[in-house]
Amino acid sequence: TSAPDPSSPTHELVVVANRLPVDSHTLPDGATEWVTSPGGLVTAMESVMRTVDSGAWVGWAGAPGEPPAPFEADGMSLYPVRLDQQDVERYYEGFSNATLWPLYHDVIVDPEFHRTWWDAYLGANRRFAEAAAPVTAPGGTVWVHDYQLQLVPLMIREKRTDVRIGFFNHIPFPSVELFSQLPKRNSILRGLLGADLLGFQRESDSLNFVAAVRKLLGYHVEGMTISVPGLGAAPVREVEVRTFPISIDSAAVSALAEDPQIRERAVQLRHDLGDPEKVVLGVDRLDYTKGIRHRLKAWGELLDDGLIDPHDTVMIQVATPSRERVDAYKQLRDEVELTVGRINGEHAPLGRPAVSYQHHSFDRRDMTALYMAADVVLVTALRDGMNLVAKEYVASRPDLRGVLVLSEFAGAADELRAAVLVNPHDIDELKSAILRALAMPAEEQEEAMRSLRHQVMENDVQNWAHDFLERLEQTGRLEGSSAPV
Ligand code: ADP
Ligand code: F6P
């Protein structure tokens, strides 16, 4: 059993996620450098955990092989989990990112299924559960995150019947028709149902999950509460499903946008681009779900059609490196870089780009300066759990200027109704939306931005975490909830 060792520290709140908030990188001289991990999960949870007393985070440090020893950072205890090269290939790049990721994002690329990948997923999930169970205080809370760890809730429940277990899925949950394609689908559902509370981004995700449980497992569902057969004394355990749209540390981002040095940096950025009249920005992990190809196609056609003048208008595309050994990501990078090269070759004025392409990370201050320098931000995801970039842009504009073009397929579209909403699959519609955004008068920008800011500033990530944990506290103590499944 993994009950806490009385001589070791335990924690009231233990977060379990595939990645730690920091990645270890080995420098040429052999020293270790820690850098912030990519993605929305870390952006959101890092700011939540900063406000928690003696919390813990269990996750992978981003490199295969011997993990670093547990260490403290930002008042939090970090417990690195070991993943060997084969785990990285089969659990992380394979089942997580070449099976689940495309399937859960509506098969934008074909998911691959391999039994060896499933075995690795099972083994890696077990390792995360084994790392989390002994460091959780008696009666404490474990909060498991995202699609890489869907078996962990049940695995922890089997070890620790005294703890509350929450799970939050940061990405979409697909329709039952698509989910049904997944080999081992019932094991995934049972794994998730080891939690007391399951959180999803959009109402449609919660409904899809409940429909899958009803259809594939035949469990009784009342409203959004699922009766899960138990063992022994408690024949039934109730699991609640709810929607919690994730957010950002809105006040912190807004405060950065008021920092005079960052404002100056935004002015400088525009100057470096040749002081164009308009700057259009895209910020994404280089992922096929983000619709970068569609965005560049629309942009290229607007230049070809003469509807955008590259002397007046510049596009910046920040495309953070991501999952670079997975085939679909390699192919995407090649295509994006070829297209950017073509657009620049045909349209860039001498000495400056039509599309400024940035394939690297920026720190938070530079990212805020970029948002402040942008007249228009394009979020054209084909499918996205939430999309925090959309919310970061809004929080970065206390001046009430700028236009957000937002895909209706991003979770953020449920809340950010005052954005220019688009179907990115319709290139003509996307082109019109871009032109409309570029031409939007200042008063109209202000009106929309005021409404968007109201939404983002009121509903920040601290509220999101508070709502989830409060609900978990209520659900996790229902009668019979401590029985193993
Ligand atoms: P995902 O979780 O799929 O990556 P989100 O839009 O929800 O997508 O979150 C992306 C997060 O990563 C945001 O906080 C964004 O600011 C950050 N980010 C994206 N690109 C970069 C970059 N090049 N440098 C630093 N942070 C980045
Ligand atoms: O929810 C989005 C997400 O997949 C997170 O789980 C993940 O940390 C982030 O995007 C970045 O992806 P990766 O960890 O594979 O680099």
Automatic annotation (TrEMBL):
It comes from the Bacteria. The keyword Transport does not apply. Keywords: Glycosyltransferase, Hydrolase, Transferase. GO terms for biological process: trehalose biosynthetic process. Its EC number is 2.4.1.15, 3.1.3.12. GO terms for molecular function: alpha,alpha-trehalose-phosphate synthase (UDP-forming) activity; trehalose-phosphatase activity. In the C-terminal section; belongs to the trehalose phosphatase family. This is Trehalose 6-phosphate synthase/phosphatase. The chain holds residues 4 to 488 of 760 of the full protein.
